[in-house]
Design a protein that fits this description.
Elements (H helix, E strand, L loop, with lengths): L2 E7 L2 E7 L1 E4 L2 E4 L3 E6 L2 E9 L1 H17 L7 H25 L6 E8 L7 E5 L5 E3 L6 E5 L5 H7 L6 H18 L7 E7 L5 E6 L1 H20 L4 H7 L2 H6 L1
Antiparallel strand pairs: 1-2, 1-10, 2-11, 3-4, 5-6, 6-7, 7-8, 8-9, 11-12
Helix pairs in contact: 1-2, 3-4, 4-5
Length: 246
């Protein structure tokens, strides 16, 4: 499984992906983020699903970029191109994948800002080749293992938050997923993009570098639970001694 998270904020983009890849019984570490930077053309692609599909789609897209630079003036155009590439790969490989009892599974988070974009953009691209744009109303999207990391994002992430706050929330979203899903783990790759800069800030974090955040969050959660108003709950347990005596 995979954990890839993209967040669109007023000031820019924050993206996080894990690096664990499971192939049969083998577990390896591999980068799940492709970055393209050239002049005023800056974008990333994060993927979940079958690694073979990811590698083929990225290879075809790299070839497109080498031959079609003039078409990369707006990010949505590249998203359309990647959608067409996914459809092409489906025509080539989908039947054999299904015959092997697997699903044609590739989801992409594509973010950045190209020369003629009026602002930074973030898109979710589906295996069918269609896409949706991530906007202010719901400023994040997870692909891969989506169940465990959503609650903290839904409760604590706002479009006008600081980028540093978003990264902390994103790390906690990943940590919640890592604790509950055995196939998601460190290290994680982090990308930060400030609007109109056309340059990514990148960092790979190992577990020991962020362990203090995980441990502190766990301690704060336990303390917060102990401090919650609980009169009604406590009343229930007042009858326990009477039951034990019987």
């Amino acid at each position: 499984m995979t954990f890839c998270l993209g967040m669109k904020l007023d000031n820019g983009l924050v993206a996080i992906s894990d690096t664990r890849v499971t192939s049969g019984r083998a577990i390896i570490k591999a980068k799940k983020v492709f970055i393209y930077e050239k002049d005023n053309h800056t974008m990333f692609i994060m993927t979940s699903g079958l690694r073979s599909l990811r590698d083929k789609v990225i290879t075809y897209f790299k070839e497109y970029l080498e031959n079609e630079d003039k078409a990369t003036d707006k990010l949505y155009k590249n998203v359309n191109v990647i959608g067409e590439i996914i459809r092409k790969v489906a025509r080539e490989d989908k039947s054999s994948i299904i015959d092997s009892k697997m699903h044609f599974d590739i989801h992409c988070l594509i973010g950045g800002q190209l020369e003629h974009d009026d602002e930074h953009k973030l898109y979710l691209l589906y295996p069918e080749g269609n896409w949706v744009e991530i906007t202010e109303g719901s400023p994040y999207q997870i692909i891969g293992e989506t169940s465990y990391g959503k609650p903290i994002l839904d409760r604590t992430l706002l479009y006008n938050d600081k980028m540093s706050h978003a990264l902390k929330v994103g790390v906690l979203s990943f940590d919640s997923t890592r604790i509950s899903a055995t196939d998601v783990d460190f290290p994680i790759d982090v990308l930060v993009y400030y609007k109109d800069t056309f340059k990514f800030i990148t960092k790979r974090y190992e577990q020991n570098e962020l362990e203090i955040i995980s441990e502190s969050w766990q301690d704060h959660l336990r303390y917060a639970v102990s401090q919650l108003p609980s009169t009604e709950i406590d009343n229930l347990f007042e009858i326990v001694p009477e039951l034990v005596e019987r």
